[in-house]
Amino acid sequence: MSELLTPDEIRARFEGVPYITPYESIAALVDEDAGLVELHEFHARGRCTGGAAWETCHYARTSPLVVSARREGARNIFVCSQGRADLALEPGIASAGLEEVRVEGEEVVLTYAGLAGGGVAATLCRGMAANVISAEVHEPGGGAALGRATLRLPAWKKLTVGVDDTDDAERGATWSTVNEVAFEIEQEAMGSYLLHTIVQLFPDNPHRTTNCCATAVVIGVRPEGLEAVVGRVRELLEGRSFSDECGMAWSSSVKSPPGLREYAAEAGKRMVSIEEAQAAAADSGVTLIPVGGERGCIGALAAVALHADPDQAVRLEGGAP
After folding, report:
1. What would the pLDDT profile of 285-299 be if each residue is shown by its tens digit?
2. CB 310 within 8 A of CB 223
3. Contact call for residues 319 and 267 (beta carbons, < 8 A)
4. How far apart are CA 163 and CA 308, in angstroms?
5. What is the spatial distance between Cα 318 and Cα 51, in angstroms, rounded to a whole number?
6. Distance of CA 129 to CAs 22, 48, 95, 155, 240, Å?
7. Is-contact 253 158, C-beta < 8 A?
8. Of 87, 92, 215, 276, which sits most exposed with the smallest number of CB within 10 A?
9. In a domain? residue 321
């Protein structure tokens, strides 16, 4: 029989069980237009890299709802289609996955299932994560048993912000400036700072300061707070930029369209004009904001395009589609 529990109730009842290790937090970012939900799951204690690697492998292989899966340290990032799927769980081969992903008003509803240890992760361990509203435990798992649970989380929007050209020859560094801006947004309780990406641009750009890199960050925000966070980021950049050409770009889409990746590839190989950036932004639904001037918007847009691939984005050929 299913049991509905809050994270505090799960902790009170199961915290002393030696094989229950709580996930740190889970965030669910919704793209209604595309029918997608992006999950950021910070695995057990925020340190369990092995568990994160196991899950990105098995969830992608087991669940047809998982469009893509990647790992950054002990954090899983799943892009999922909304819907329901029957899972053919098989020990050691396809041992855990997502049965259901749906948006219900202001909440995201996720049903996880897994065998043995994967079932414990699916139920009690995830149920203790920060940001979880409730967990309906259908089967608790453990040993060789099946574990299944339905979790509810707040439905957030994904705000991706790209920034370029914040420094001059004497002062500043875009990667660190943007990092501090995103951190301050979180400290002000306006959103949850989830991801930071540095994007290498055309190194022979005559306008570059030195390394010619732009930066993107991902912030999980409440839908009603999206515009306020965009405005606050702009305000903070205005106060911290040493360049007259600082620009930003922002999007609330979960995935970058292919055309935007092609634009980023060009920005890594040659000089790109502001007119090209404006056309690419219009085609992909990205908003450009000249914080100081328009030139910074060129790199800012490329950063938005490549935000989901931080290891490749730092390479000179990182923008290749």
Report:
1. 999 999 999 999 999
2. no
3. yes
4. 15
5. 28
6. 6, 14, 21, 15, 35
7. yes
8. 92
9. no
pTM to 2 decimals?
0.94
**How would residue 142 be classed by pLDDT, with cut points 50, 70 and 90?**
confident
For 149, 169, 180, 303, 319, the CA distances from 196, given in Å and listed in that order, are 31, 24, 11, 10, 16
Q: What is the CA radius of gyration of the chain?
A: 21
Q: Is the pLDDT of residue 10 over 90?
A: yes
Structure-token pair, residue 25:
């937090």
Can you tell me which residue has the tokens 């930029």?
241
Rounded Cα–Cα distance for residues 26 and 28 (Å):
7
How many structural domains comprise the chain? 2
Q: How far is CA 33 from CA 81, 197, 255, in A?
A: 12, 25, 11
- CA–CA distances in Å: residue 282 to residues 287, 310, 321: 8, 24, 19
Comparing 69-73, 147-151, 210-214, the range with the smallest average pLDDT is: 210-214
